[in-house]
Amino acid sequence: MKKLLVCALLAAVMAAVPAFAKKSYVNGIDPNYPPFAYVDEKTGQPAGFDVDSLNWIAKNMGFEITHKPMAWDGIIPALVAKQIDMVDSGMSITPERAKVVEFSDPYWTVSRVFLVPANSTLTPQDVLTKKVKLGVQRGTSEANAIKQEQQEKGYPFELRFYESAPLAVEDLLNGRIEVALMDELPADDAISKGRGVKKAGTHGEPDKFGVAMRKDDKELQKLINDGYKKLMADPYWQELQKKYLNK
Ligand code: ARG
Questions:
Q1: Closest alpha carbon to 37 in 142, 164, 136, 146
Q2: Interface pTM (ipTM) of the complex?
Q3: Looking at the structure, do residues 105 and 224 belong to the same domain, yes or no?
Q4: Tens of pLDDT along 63-74?
Q5: Could you give the number of structural domains in the chain?
Q6: Is 103 in the pocket of ligand 1 (CB under 6 A)?
Protein backbone atom coordinates (compact mmCIF):
# COMPACT_ATOMS: atom_id res chain seq x y z
CA MET A 1 0.00 0.00 0.00
CA LYS A 2 2.74 2.36 1.03
CA LYS A 3 4.73 1.40 -2.03
CA LEU A 4 1.78 2.21 -4.25
CA LEU A 5 1.41 5.61 -2.66
CA VAL A 6 5.10 6.40 -3.18
CA CYS A 7 4.85 5.33 -6.79
CA ALA A 8 1.80 7.48 -7.41
CA LEU A 9 3.45 10.41 -5.69
CA LEU A 10 6.60 9.99 -7.74
CA ALA A 11 4.61 9.82 -10.99
CA ALA A 12 2.74 13.01 -10.06
CA VAL A 13 5.95 14.84 -9.25
CA MET A 14 7.62 13.67 -12.45
CA ALA A 15 4.68 14.79 -14.57
CA ALA A 16 4.78 18.22 -12.93
CA VAL A 17 8.53 18.76 -13.36
CA PRO A 18 9.29 19.82 -16.93
CA ALA A 19 12.56 17.87 -17.05
CA PHE A 20 10.68 14.59 -16.47
CA ALA A 21 7.40 15.35 -18.24
CA LYS A 22 6.91 13.98 -21.75
CA LYS A 23 7.22 16.60 -24.42
CA SER A 24 3.97 17.24 -26.19
CA TYR A 25 3.65 18.36 -29.78
CA VAL A 26 0.81 19.48 -32.02
CA ASN A 27 0.45 18.21 -35.58
CA GLY A 28 -1.58 20.34 -37.99
CA ILE A 29 -3.74 18.34 -40.40
CA ASP A 30 -6.07 18.97 -43.28
CA PRO A 31 -9.01 16.82 -42.06
CA ASN A 32 -10.29 16.38 -45.63
CA TYR A 33 -7.44 14.43 -47.12
CA PRO A 34 -8.24 10.74 -46.90
CA PRO A 35 -6.47 8.35 -46.80
CA PHE A 36 -3.62 10.44 -45.29
CA ALA A 37 -5.56 12.49 -42.76
CA TYR A 38 -9.27 12.85 -42.00
CA VAL A 39 -11.71 12.84 -39.15
CA ASP A 40 -13.27 9.41 -38.65
CA GLU A 41 -17.04 9.70 -38.97
CA LYS A 42 -17.75 7.05 -36.33
CA THR A 43 -15.29 8.07 -33.62
CA GLY A 44 -14.96 11.78 -34.40
CA GLN A 45 -11.19 11.28 -34.01
CA PRO A 46 -8.42 12.20 -36.45
CA ALA A 47 -7.36 9.15 -38.47
CA GLY A 48 -5.46 8.19 -41.60
CA PHE A 49 -2.10 6.91 -42.73
CA ASP A 50 -0.18 9.97 -41.49
CA VAL A 51 -2.12 10.32 -38.24
CA ASP A 52 -1.62 6.65 -37.30
CA SER A 53 2.05 6.77 -38.33
CA LEU A 54 2.66 9.74 -36.10
CA ASN A 55 0.73 8.24 -33.18
CA TRP A 56 2.97 5.16 -33.39
CA ILE A 57 6.11 7.30 -33.57
CA ALA A 58 5.02 9.39 -30.57
CA LYS A 59 4.41 6.25 -28.53
CA ASN A 60 7.74 4.70 -29.49
CA MET A 61 9.84 7.85 -29.24
CA GLY A 62 8.25 8.93 -25.95
CA PHE A 63 6.33 12.11 -26.71
CA GLU A 64 2.69 13.19 -26.62
CA ILE A 65 0.93 14.12 -29.83
CA THR A 66 -2.34 15.83 -30.69
CA HIS A 67 -3.71 16.49 -34.18
CA LYS A 68 -5.25 19.85 -34.93
CA PRO A 69 -7.55 20.10 -37.95
CA MET A 70 -7.11 23.33 -39.88
CA ALA A 71 -7.34 24.90 -43.35
CA TRP A 72 -4.56 23.69 -45.64
CA ASP A 73 -4.09 27.12 -47.12
CA GLY A 74 -2.85 28.62 -43.83
CA ILE A 75 -1.03 25.61 -42.42
CA ILE A 76 2.58 26.74 -43.04
CA PRO A 77 2.00 30.22 -41.58
CA ALA A 78 0.45 28.47 -38.53
CA LEU A 79 3.59 26.33 -38.19
CA VAL A 80 5.89 29.32 -38.41
CA ALA A 81 3.73 31.20 -35.87
CA LYS A 82 4.03 28.22 -33.46
CA GLN A 83 0.30 27.46 -33.38
CA ILE A 84 1.35 23.94 -34.38
CA ASP A 85 4.73 22.16 -34.27
CA MET A 86 4.62 20.09 -37.44
CA VAL A 87 2.59 19.17 -40.49
CA ASP A 88 2.36 15.43 -41.09
CA SER A 89 -0.60 15.45 -43.49
CA GLY A 90 0.18 14.52 -47.09
CA MET A 91 2.51 17.49 -47.60
CA SER A 92 4.77 17.46 -50.64
CA ILE A 93 8.37 18.51 -50.22
CA THR A 94 8.83 21.53 -52.50
CA PRO A 95 11.76 23.95 -52.90
CA GLU A 96 9.50 26.95 -52.10
CA ARG A 97 8.29 25.43 -48.83
CA ALA A 98 11.80 24.28 -47.93
CA LYS A 99 12.87 27.93 -47.84
CA VAL A 100 10.48 28.50 -44.93
CA VAL A 101 10.32 25.14 -43.11
CA GLU A 102 12.50 22.09 -42.56
CA PHE A 103 11.32 18.79 -44.04
CA SER A 104 11.90 15.32 -42.62
CA ASP A 105 13.26 12.61 -44.89
CA PRO A 106 10.59 11.63 -47.44
CA TYR A 107 8.25 8.87 -46.26
CA TRP A 108 6.01 8.38 -49.32
CA THR A 109 5.88 9.09 -53.06
CA VAL A 110 2.69 9.94 -54.97
CA SER A 111 1.80 10.67 -58.58
CA ARG A 112 -0.50 13.51 -59.60
CA VAL A 113 -3.53 12.58 -61.64
CA PHE A 114 -6.32 14.19 -63.62
CA LEU A 115 -9.66 13.09 -62.18
CA VAL A 116 -12.76 13.24 -64.42
CA PRO A 117 -16.39 12.10 -64.22
CA ALA A 118 -16.73 8.39 -65.03
CA ASN A 119 -18.46 9.11 -68.36
CA SER A 120 -15.91 11.72 -69.51
CA THR A 121 -13.79 11.20 -72.64
CA LEU A 122 -11.21 13.88 -71.76
CA THR A 123 -7.57 12.83 -72.16
CA PRO A 124 -4.60 14.51 -70.46
CA GLN A 125 -3.77 15.97 -73.89
CA ASP A 126 -7.28 17.51 -74.10
CA VAL A 127 -6.86 19.04 -70.64
CA LEU A 128 -3.75 20.89 -71.77
CA THR A 129 -5.06 21.99 -75.18
CA LYS A 130 -8.76 22.80 -74.65
CA LYS A 131 -10.57 25.50 -72.75
CA VAL A 132 -11.65 23.17 -69.90
CA LYS A 133 -12.41 24.17 -66.32
CA LEU A 134 -9.75 22.60 -64.13
CA GLY A 135 -10.11 22.39 -60.33
CA VAL A 136 -7.26 22.23 -57.80
CA GLN A 137 -6.98 22.52 -54.04
CA ARG A 138 -5.79 25.96 -53.01
CA GLY A 139 -2.29 26.18 -51.52
CA THR A 140 -1.16 22.80 -52.81
CA SER A 141 2.02 21.91 -54.67
CA GLU A 142 -0.08 20.83 -57.66
CA ALA A 143 -1.97 24.15 -57.71
CA ASN A 144 1.28 26.10 -57.78
CA ALA A 145 2.88 23.82 -60.36
CA ILE A 146 -0.05 23.95 -62.77
CA LYS A 147 -0.40 27.73 -62.41
CA GLN A 148 3.26 28.14 -63.26
CA GLU A 149 3.03 25.73 -66.21
CA GLN A 150 0.08 27.67 -67.55
CA GLN A 151 2.03 30.92 -67.39
CA GLU A 152 5.02 29.37 -69.12
CA LYS A 153 3.18 27.41 -71.78
CA GLY A 154 -0.02 29.39 -72.23
CA TYR A 155 -2.41 26.48 -71.60
CA PRO A 156 -5.99 27.60 -72.30
CA PHE A 157 -7.72 25.95 -69.27
CA GLU A 158 -9.52 28.00 -66.66
CA LEU A 159 -8.35 27.25 -63.10
CA ARG A 160 -10.80 26.97 -60.20
CA PHE A 161 -9.53 26.81 -56.63
CA TYR A 162 -11.05 24.73 -53.81
CA GLU A 163 -10.62 24.60 -50.06
CA SER A 164 -10.32 20.79 -50.14
CA ALA A 165 -10.02 17.91 -52.61
CA PRO A 166 -13.51 16.48 -51.83
CA LEU A 167 -15.06 19.88 -52.69
CA ALA A 168 -13.38 19.73 -56.10
CA VAL A 169 -14.83 16.23 -56.57
CA GLU A 170 -18.30 17.62 -55.70
CA ASP A 171 -17.99 20.21 -58.47
CA LEU A 172 -16.75 17.56 -60.91
CA LEU A 173 -19.93 15.61 -60.27
CA ASN A 174 -22.30 18.54 -60.62
CA GLY A 175 -20.57 19.72 -63.79
CA ARG A 176 -19.05 23.01 -62.58
CA ILE A 177 -15.60 21.76 -63.60
CA GLU A 178 -14.61 19.11 -66.13
CA VAL A 179 -11.41 17.88 -64.53
CA ALA A 180 -9.52 18.09 -61.22
CA LEU A 181 -5.80 17.70 -60.58
CA MET A 182 -4.80 16.02 -57.31
CA ASP A 183 -2.53 13.44 -55.66
CA GLU A 184 -3.31 9.92 -56.78
CA LEU A 185 -4.29 8.46 -53.40
CA PRO A 186 -7.04 10.95 -52.54
CA ALA A 187 -8.25 10.40 -56.13
CA ASP A 188 -8.28 6.63 -55.53
CA ASP A 189 -10.15 7.26 -52.30
CA ALA A 190 -12.92 9.12 -54.16
CA ILE A 191 -13.05 6.34 -56.79
CA SER A 192 -13.22 3.57 -54.19
CA LYS A 193 -16.07 5.38 -52.41
CA GLY A 194 -18.07 5.01 -55.63
CA ARG A 195 -18.16 8.72 -56.38
CA GLY A 196 -18.63 8.23 -60.15
CA VAL A 197 -15.19 9.53 -61.08
CA LYS A 198 -12.14 8.01 -62.78
CA LYS A 199 -8.54 8.84 -63.50
CA ALA A 200 -7.80 10.26 -66.97
CA GLY A 201 -4.03 9.92 -66.55
CA THR A 202 -1.08 11.20 -64.58
CA HIS A 203 0.48 14.62 -64.90
CA GLY A 204 4.02 15.83 -64.15
CA GLU A 205 6.59 14.30 -61.82
CA PRO A 206 5.59 12.39 -58.67
CA ASP A 207 5.70 14.28 -55.35
CA LYS A 208 7.50 13.16 -52.22
CA PHE A 209 5.72 13.59 -48.90
CA GLY A 210 7.63 14.74 -45.82
CA VAL A 211 6.86 16.16 -42.36
CA ALA A 212 7.28 19.94 -42.17
CA MET A 213 8.79 21.42 -38.99
CA ARG A 214 10.25 24.76 -37.91
CA LYS A 215 13.83 25.20 -39.10
CA ASP A 216 15.23 25.72 -35.60
CA ASP A 217 13.37 22.79 -34.01
CA LYS A 218 16.29 20.36 -34.21
CA GLU A 219 15.05 18.19 -31.35
CA LEU A 220 11.77 17.43 -33.08
CA GLN A 221 13.47 16.92 -36.45
CA LYS A 222 15.59 14.17 -34.93
CA LEU A 223 12.61 12.56 -33.19
CA ILE A 224 10.65 12.47 -36.45
CA ASN A 225 13.45 11.19 -38.66
CA ASP A 226 14.48 8.53 -36.14
CA GLY A 227 10.83 7.72 -35.49
CA TYR A 228 10.04 7.11 -39.16
CA LYS A 229 13.15 4.92 -39.51
CA LYS A 230 11.97 2.84 -36.59
CA LEU A 231 8.41 2.67 -37.93
CA MET A 232 9.56 1.63 -41.41
CA ALA A 233 11.51 -1.26 -39.89
CA ASP A 234 8.46 -2.42 -37.93
CA PRO A 235 5.70 -4.73 -39.27
CA TYR A 236 3.19 -1.98 -38.35
CA TRP A 237 4.40 0.02 -41.41
CA GLN A 238 3.11 -2.76 -43.71
CA GLU A 239 -0.08 -2.97 -41.71
CA LEU A 240 -0.71 0.74 -42.17
CA GLN A 241 -0.13 0.51 -45.92
CA LYS A 242 -2.58 -2.35 -46.15
CA LYS A 243 -5.16 -0.54 -44.07
CA TYR A 244 -5.02 2.85 -45.78
CA LEU A 245 -3.23 2.59 -49.11
CA ASN A 246 -4.40 -0.78 -50.48
CA LYS A 247 -0.80 -2.00 -50.72
N1 ARG B 1 0.58 17.12 -51.96
C2 ARG B 1 -0.03 18.40 -52.16
C3 ARG B 1 0.67 19.45 -51.33
O4 ARG B 1 1.55 19.18 -50.60
C5 ARG B 1 -1.47 18.33 -51.77
C6 ARG B 1 -1.61 18.16 -50.35
C7 ARG B 1 -2.89 18.36 -49.87
N8 ARG B 1 -2.79 17.73 -48.59
C9 ARG B 1 -3.63 17.94 -47.71
N10 ARG B 1 -3.48 17.37 -46.57
N11 ARG B 1 -4.57 18.74 -48.01
O12 ARG B 1 0.37 20.58 -51.42
A1: 164
A2: 0.95
A3: yes
A4: 999 999 999 989
A5: 2
A6: no
